């Protein structure tokens, strides 16, 4: 089953998992230590992140390590960038309006 990436990252626990594995690969047990929940609950979150290709897994001995797929994060960033440019334009226009109003008060 393919999942929607934005639905996956809407959950605060999954965003926290992403933040934890952004710098180093971790096992489900290591991840579970950071949450007040069961390893099974963390595994469900990891499964959802894996299903939308945000997280990749690598077997090392008997352990499975999960890490962030940077390419997928770049896709999210690229999509958000169009809005970032729009917001920056609007903020710049607001700055100009505020500067004009400030000059008029003097």
UniProtKB/TrEMBL annotation:
<dbReference type="InterPro" id="IPR036390">
    <property type="entry name" value="WH_DNA-bd_sf"/>
</dbReference>
<dbReference type="InterPro" id="IPR011991">
    <property type="entry name" value="ArsR-like_HTH"/>
</dbReference>
<dbReference type="GO" id="GO:0003700">
    <property type="term" value="F:DNA-binding transcription factor activity"/>
</dbReference>
<dbReference type="InterPro" id="IPR001845">
    <property type="entry name" value="HTH_ArsR_DNA-bd_dom"/>
</dbReference>
<protein>
    <submittedName>
        <fullName>Transcriptional regulator</fullName>
    </submittedName>
</protein>
<dbReference type="InterPro" id="IPR036388">
    <property type="entry name" value="WH-like_DNA-bd_sf"/>
</dbReference>
<feature type="domain" description="HTH arsR-type">
    <location>
        <begin position="1"/>
        <end position="88"/>
    </location>
</feature>
<dbReference type="Pfam" id="PF12840">
    <property type="entry name" value="HTH_20"/>
</dbReference>
């Amino acid at each position: 089953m393919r999942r929607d990436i934005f639905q996956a990252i809407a959950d605060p626990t999954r965003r926290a998992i992403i933040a934890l594995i952004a710098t180093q690969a971790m096992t489900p047990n290591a991840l579970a230590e950071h949450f007040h929940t069961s390893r099974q609950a963390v595994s469900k979150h990891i499964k959802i992140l894996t299903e939308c290709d945000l997280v990749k897994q690598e077997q090392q001995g008997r352990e499975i390590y999960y890490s962030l797929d940077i390419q997928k994060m770049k896709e999210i960033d690229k999509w958000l960038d169009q809005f970032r440019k729009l917001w920056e334009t609007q903020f710049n226009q607001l700055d100009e309006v505020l500067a004009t109003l400030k000059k008029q008060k003097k």
